[in-house]
Amino acid sequence: MFKREAAETVKQISDTFRVLLVTGPRQVGKTTLLKEYMPNDMNYVTLDDKVMRELAKNDPKLFLEENPWPLLIDEAQYAPELFPYIKMKVDEQNIRGMYWLTGSQQFKLMKNVKESLAGRVGIVKLNSFTYTETKMKENKDIFNPLNMKENENIDVNDIFNFIYNGGMPELYNIPNMNRNHFFDAYIDTYLTRDVKEQLDIKDAEEFKKFMISVATRTGEQLNYSSIASELGVSDKTVRSWLNVLIASGIVYLLEPYMNTKLKRVTHMPKIIFMDTGLCSYLAGWDSAKDLQNSSVSGHYLETFIVSEILKTYNSKGIEPNIYYYRDKDKNEIDLIFNRNNKLYPFEIKKTAMPTKAMISNFKFLEKSGKELGSGGIICFYEKLMRIDEKHYIIPISSVINN
Q1: How far does the chain reach from its first CA to its final CA, in angstroms?
Q2: How is residue 265 annotated by DSSP?
Q3: Cα dist. 182→108, 121, 131, 287 in Å?
Q4: Mean pLDDT, to the nearest integer, of 108-135?
Q5: What are phi and psi of 361, to 5 degrees?
Q6: Strands 376-379, 342-348: parallel, antiparallel or unpaired by DSSP?
Q7: Residue 261: predicted pLDDT
Q8: Are 230 and 185 in contact (CB under 8 A)?
Q9: What is the pLDDT of residue 157?
Q10: 77-81, 146-150, 243-247: the lowest-pLDDT one
């Protein structure tokens, strides 16, 4: 059994909130996680069951009477009619951990939850496995630029094998699961269930082409017009479709760092696929080695590092507060942490021979008016060490394997 880094957060929220909600993309292990830790007296019901779904939608009061708390409701987004009645139940009892909910369609779920259960619900965002989880290691600390640690080195080939395969639990839980068969079925389920319920798309293949177009741009700045032109659709359509990928946890947009003192900075976010295996499958890579040797390997490495940071922060219920920098002259900084009113800049490089020149763009943040903390180069060097009086060479293992 693979241990999830979010397990302790689930317990903490259940002990302090009346309702626990675990959200995330399909098949990342939400139900498995909760079933492993649910109390012995907790009931379970899934709204994937059409009979239960219809009862929950048409007579939510009766549904909650027939399924008393403590109760785990799977795929709760299918019956938002339940939420006002859950609110009444928890307000009557005021007992922690009365209801546990899961939901994969965040674009439907979050609006209804915030309206009905504000102040009563604690939320955990669950993603596919991190690299560390697949190695069955103990829960790790989040990457903290204020307290970097040295860890056992990780081979570049091992990293790119993980990037190529990604962290979807079924690929690790089922021996000999074929990666291509899995992702083909995963995309088909996503298109036929989540996307069709949210968007009026007549041709699912059209949206799949859109997903492929976005996947080929992971680690790059988002350009709506470029994607729209490639697909022969409007910018408005691309924005609408991308919102679905974001809301369902497939894609994250890394926003540029901006403030009033920084001039000529870009306003375009970067595309980050949250599971690099799904991304590499959509983009058509045949092997980890082909991807590793390609001209876009740096973009995938950057996507991997950012997504791993996001996954670990999500598992702790913490917002990472991260950005990137790029100006009109194409000066770029890959990753910036904004912590305690300080900026901590990092470059992400596919190299084992980092140089001080790689951090030369850090100086552009001096115009921000904020104090700069220590940063450095995240790379394949074997040891954590200083590159100057303030900045570090940081092995990838110090970021993803704390």
Answers
A1: 21
A2: B
A3: 26, 33, 19, 15
A4: 86
A5: -75, -10
A6: parallel
A7: 82
A8: no
A9: 97
A10: 146-150
pLDDT interval class at 371 (50, 70, 90): very high
Share of the chain above pLDDT 90, in %: 77
Residues 70 and 113: their CA atoms lie apart, in Å, by 18
Q: Which residues pair with 254 in a beta bridge?
A: 270
- The strand pairing partners of 91, in sequence order, are none
For residue 350, count CB atoms less than 10 angstroms from its CB and return exposed for 0-12, middle for 13-18, buried for 19 or more: middle
Closest by Cα among 376, 370, 374, 367 to 390: 374
Helices 297-315 + 156-165 axis angle, to 10: 70
- And the tokens for 170? 């079924």
Look up residue 113 and give its DSSP letter.
H
For the segment 379-391, the average pLDDT, to the nearest whole number, is: 93
Give, in order, the Cα–Cα distances in Å from 317 to each of 3, 10, 122, 130, 166. 17, 9, 9, 15, 22
172 CB contacts (<8 Å, ≥6 apart)? 2, 129, 134
- 120 closest CA partner among 140, 100, 135: 100
Query: In the structure encoding, which two tokens stand for residue 103, read together?
Result: 């939901």
Q: Tell me, what amino acid is at 232?
A: G
d(CA 8, CA 96): 16
- How far from chain centre, in Å, is Cα 259? 25
Q: Spell out the domains of the chain, with CATH numbers in brackets.
A: 7-125 (3.40.50.300), 131-400 (no CATH)
d(CA 173, CA 175): 6
- At residue 334, the pLDDT reads 97
Closest CA to 282 of 260, 325, 251: 251
Cα–Cα distance list, 369 to 257, 287, 328, 332 (Å): 13, 45, 19, 18
Q: How many CB atoms lie within 10 A of CB 232?
A: 9
C-alpha to C-alpha distance for 56 and 99, rounded to whole angstroms: 15
C-alpha 332/C-alpha 374 separation (Å) is: 17
Angle value at C-alpha 23, between 22 and 29, nearest 5 degrees: 75
Q: Is the pLDDT of residue 146 over 90?
A: no
Give the model's confidence band at 196: pLDDT under 50 very low, under 70 low, under 90 confident, else very high.
Answer: confident
Check: CB of residue 314 under 8 Å from CB of residue 25.
no
Q: Token pair of 66, please?
A: 């027939």
DSSP lists the bridge partners of residue 54 as none
